[in-house]
Design a protein that fits this description.
The protein has a 12-stranded mixed beta sheet, with helices on one face. The protein is globular. It contains 4 helices and 12 strands, in the order ααββββββααββββββ. Helix content is 19%, strand content 42%.
Length: 240
């Protein structure tokens, strides 16, 4: 770790005044960078993320969709996501060569040729098929730089308590959206909660993280999809 907890307290005291007047708060950037460094140093990680996604339904207006995701990353080229939500139960397996989508409800699956790394695959399937993976942004090495590029203001808003855990509260404001982060006040700086609010809209996206596990020995076989009996292979059409 680059900074101890005591060091953070000193920095908070040092930059406390400037945080109120500066559009880019040094403390906020330091915390975000430290979180990104810790995640970047991991050989593997797993966590649970519960999400709420608001959408405007043309028939009934604002509706919220909920899901619980179990996520596993191993090295630069392995990923498994098990998703249960009000749109069904789905799974995604990535082994460095292909990404497999499987619907537990319909017992069908699709195989998609994929790039050689997890992050490239996430970018590729989103741009081609519109498939989004929860919390993926935290695993990009350019996470803080991307926030800086898309924000007019980044501030540290003090210590907050989420589910009994002390967290650093960071707020970023951009042209299109405001994002709030709650990052654990411990040696790991893991994300605890994220809230994205669209400006000039009542739409929100919320993600709550738990059950973080680091540097586990994960069997390679868990990232290989094995089709269940009578499962049908289908094709996924690119988004329009």
């Amino acid at each position: 770790m680059k900074h101890s907890f005591t060091g953070f307290l000193a920095l908070i005291m040092t930059f406390g005044v400037s945080a109120q007047v500066s559009k880019v708060d040094s403390v906020a950037i330091l915390i975000l960078d430290q979180m990104s460094h810790v995640i970047g140093d991991l050989t593997s990680a797993s966590f649970t993320v519960e999400t709420r996604n608001d959408v405007n339904d043309p028939d009934v207006g604002l509706t919220s969709h909920f899901a619980v995701n179990e996520v596993y990353f191993d090295g630069p080229d392995k990923m498994l996501v098990n998703l249960k939500g009000d749109k069904g139960h789905r799974g995604y397996w990535y082994n460095g060569d292909v990404l497999v989508f499987y619907s537990y409800n319909e017992n069908n699956y699709a195989v998609i040729d994929a790039p050689s790394t997890t992050l490239e695959t996430i970018d590729s399937v989103y741009s081609t098929y519109g498939i989004d993976f929860p919390a993926a942004d935290f695993f990009y090495p350019t996470f803080t730089d991307d926030l800086l590029a898309n924000s007019n203001e980044i501030v540290f808003d003090g210590i907050r308590v989420i589910d009994g855990k002390e967290c650093f509260h960071i707020i970023t404001k951009g042209k299109e959206e405001t994002i709030q982060f709650w990052i654990s006040n411990n040696v790991f700086y893991t994300p605890v909660k994220m809230l994205i609010m669209k400006n000039n809209s009542n739409l929100q996206y919320e993600a709550t993280f738990s059950n973080w596990q680091f540097n586990q020995v994960l069997p390679v076989s868990m990232f290989e999809f094995v089709a269940p009996p009578k499962a049908r292979e289908i094709s996924i059409l690119p988004k329009k």
